[in-house]
């Protein structure tokens, strides 16, 4: 066993699941057991909800803005001090390569937390809306912001620390109390956040973590329980729909960050056209990123050139992935056997649909006993093919030619999703196109549109609400109007 056991964190204490039930934490590099995790029972989940409810209802947690800010700053320091452990967990449990672990998995997550901490002082807790004379008397009015209450945070496995922080830290800063339910594949990242919460001195009950082997049960309990006020969910669109449905009986606030099939649009006047095309390869963390632009749109007038560039770029990457100990490596295995099968099945689907496999597509058992599949690129793709419409969530790029700028925008928007996107061209023109792409985060010429101090979220079936930034904290607030009779 390489990693410590992921234990439940409930009401300020780390503990085992009822009956000491555990399950195996499988590592993507080896396909083997890398640790154990507590397998929470429905009673354990109920205990976590009860603790969060008690902490919200009977303590002053939600009213002490300064105290929460100080505790979260301390927590940030502890996460930094334990950076190496976090990197180790993301490598072994989430299958991150060192180059990806150090960036998006851990440093990106900690940078995101800095963004939230920077935004916190900008939250307006109370606003004086002045005096209004109506019905023959004066009323002095206040509009206040208050924490929503108990939050159920349900997170995926691809960038566990990043998503956990985006929800847990924002909700705690807002004054909510939280029950975090990490994905079954990445229990330790959540459990370790619980361990550090003890060290940071978070009051018992304000933050709780429940891990479980079954993907749905604990999340469904959280979604249906009337004591939970808000569900903040990141994951697939299919499960997001289920959560909305299950949350409807108690009219829960539901916040959803879902899937994507974002477009990477290269305009014909893009400076450094070959370099920009080469950089569209979907390889970072094996393509397991929700806002990853996985549809490359290139002008038909430069299509042949783009295909040639990609052929060379993929050929030069052949030996650069799947290396556990290589610091510059940014692509490892996919998370699980199930995910490997899913990606492999899309390679078959693409071929059946008549797209041309330019590179990759093979499962690579020679890379090790884990879940390795080659960086893959399909060209001659039409946007109505399944490989262009459905989220694959693996290292697969599809390349689609377009006729002109209008056609590029039309293709980019011809999707049920609308999460991210990238546009490359002369700045003014690229910005014009970016403004018309129906998605929540757009990068122009490589600019960063996803950082902790900016709102992030999807249009259409990519979700609802915004995470990160001031908006991400305000997502966990309710608005109250108060009228005080003044004459
Ligand atoms: P998933 O939807 O299968 O699971 C996400 C979480 O929901 C897990 O914790 C899972 O245990 C839980 N869950 C499953 N069924 C549930 C139910 N019925 N009720 C409540 N909870 C339930 O997603 P995944 O496979 O873990 O992650 C991949 C997906 O996540 C992709 O679709 C990806 O696009 C999406 N994602 C989105 C973002 C974003 O910010 N938009 C970020 C990362 C990942």
Structure description:
- By secondary structure, the protein is an alpha/beta fold.
- It has two domains: 8-258 and 462-484, Aldehyde Dehydrogenase, Chain A, domain 1, CATH 3.40.605; 262-451, Aldehyde Dehydrogenase, Chain A, domain 2 (3-Layer(aba) Sandwich), CATH 3.40.309.
- 37% of the residues lie in helices and 22% in strands.
- The strands form five sheets. The chain has a seven-stranded mixed beta sheet, sandwiched between helices. A six-stranded mixed beta sheet has the order 9-8-7-10-11-19, with helices on both faces. Strands 5-6-20 form a three-stranded antiparallel beta sheet, with no helix packed on it.
- Helix 1 runs parallel beside helix 7 (217-224) and helix 4 packs parallel to helix 5.
- The radius of gyration is 23 Å and the shape is globular.
- The model has no long low-confidence stretch (mean pLDDT 98).
- The structure holds nicotinamide-adenine-dinucleotide.
Summary?
Helices cover 37% and strands 22% of the residues. By secondary structure, the protein is of the alpha/beta class.
The average pLDDT value, as a whole number, equals 98
The CATH H-level superfamily of the largest domain is Aldehyde Dehydrogenase, Chain A, domain 1
Write out the distinct hetero groups bound to the structure: nicotinamide-adenine-dinucleotide
Strand order of the largest sheet: 14-15-16-13-12-17-18
Judged by helices, strands and strand pairing, the structural class is: alpha/beta
Task: Sketch the major β-sheet.
Answer: 7 strands, mixed
Query: What is the second-level CATH architecture of the largest domain?
Result: 3-Layer(aba) Sandwich
Outline type: globular
Strand proportion, as a percent range, falls in 15-25%
* Helicity, as a percent range: 25-40%
Report the radius of gyration as a whole number of Å. Answer: 23 Å
CATH topology of the largest domain: Aldehyde Dehydrogenase, Chain A, domain 1
The number of helical elements comes to: 15
What's the total number of strands? 20
Distance, first to last CA: 72 Å
CATH class of the largest domain: Alpha Beta
Count of domain modules = 2
Q: Which residues form runs of ≥5 with pLDDT under 50? A: none
Give me the oligomer status: single chain
């Amino acid at each position: 066993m390489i990693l410590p056991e992921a234990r439940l964190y409930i009401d300020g204490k780390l503990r085992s699941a009822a009956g000491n039930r555990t399950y195996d934490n499988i590592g993507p590099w080896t396909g083997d057991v890398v640790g154990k995790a507590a397998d929470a029972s429905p009673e354990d989940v109920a205990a976590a909800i009860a603790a969060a409810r008690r902490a919200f209802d009977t303590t002053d947690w939600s009213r002490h803005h300064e105290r929460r800010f100080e505790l979260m700053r301390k927590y940030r320091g502890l996460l930094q001090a334990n950076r190496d452990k976090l990197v180790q967990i993301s490598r072994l449990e989430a299958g991150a390569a060192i180059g990806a672990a150090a960036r998006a998995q851990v440093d990106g997550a900690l940078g995101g937390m800095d963004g939230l901490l920077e935004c916190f002082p900008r939250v307006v807790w109370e606003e004086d809306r002045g005096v209004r004379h109506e019905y023959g008397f004066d009323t002095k009015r206040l509009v206040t912001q208050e924490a929503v209450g108990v939050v159920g945070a349900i997170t995926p496995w691809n960038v566990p620390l990043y998503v956990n922080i985006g929800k847990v830290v924002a909700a705690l800063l807002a004054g909510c109390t939280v029950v975090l339910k990490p994905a079954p594949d990445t229990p330790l990242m959540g459990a370790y956040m619980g361990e550090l919460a003890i060290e940071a001195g978070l009051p018992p009950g304000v933050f709780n973590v429940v891990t479980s082997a079954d993907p749905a049960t604990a999340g469904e309990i959280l979604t249906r329980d009337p004591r939970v006020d808000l569900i903040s969910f990141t994951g697939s669109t299919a499960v997001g729909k289920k959560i909305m449905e299950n949350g409807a009986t108690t009219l829960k606030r539901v916040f959803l960050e879902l899937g994507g099939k974002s477009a990477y649009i290269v305009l014909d006047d893009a400076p450094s056209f070959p370099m920009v095309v080469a950089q569209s390869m979907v390889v970072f963390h094996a393509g397991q990123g929700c806002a990853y632009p996985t549809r490359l749109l290139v002008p038909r007038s430069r299509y042949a050139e783009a295909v040639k560039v990609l052929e060379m770029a993929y050929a030069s990457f052949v030996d650069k992935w799947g290396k556990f100990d290589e610091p510059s490596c940014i692509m490892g295995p996919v998370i699980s056997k199930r995910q490997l099968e899913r990606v492999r099945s899309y390679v078959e689907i693409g071929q059946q649909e008549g797209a041309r496999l330019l590179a990759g597509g093979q499962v690579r058992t020679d890379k090790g006993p884990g879940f390795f599949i080659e960086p893959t690129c399909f060209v001659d793709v039409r946007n109505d093919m399944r490989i262009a419409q459905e989220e694959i969530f693996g290292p697969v790029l599809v390349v689609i030619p377009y006729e002109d700028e209008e056609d590029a925008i039309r293709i980019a928007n011809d999707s049920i999703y609308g999460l991210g996107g990238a546009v490359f061209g002369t700045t003014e023109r690229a910005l014009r196109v970016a403004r018309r792409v129906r998605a929540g985060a757009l990068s122009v010429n490589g600019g960063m549109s996803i950082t902790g101090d900016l709102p992030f979220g999807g249009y259409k079936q990519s979700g609802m609400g915004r995470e990160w930034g001031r908006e991400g904290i305000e997502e966990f607030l309710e608005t109250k109007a108060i009228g005080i009779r003044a004459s």
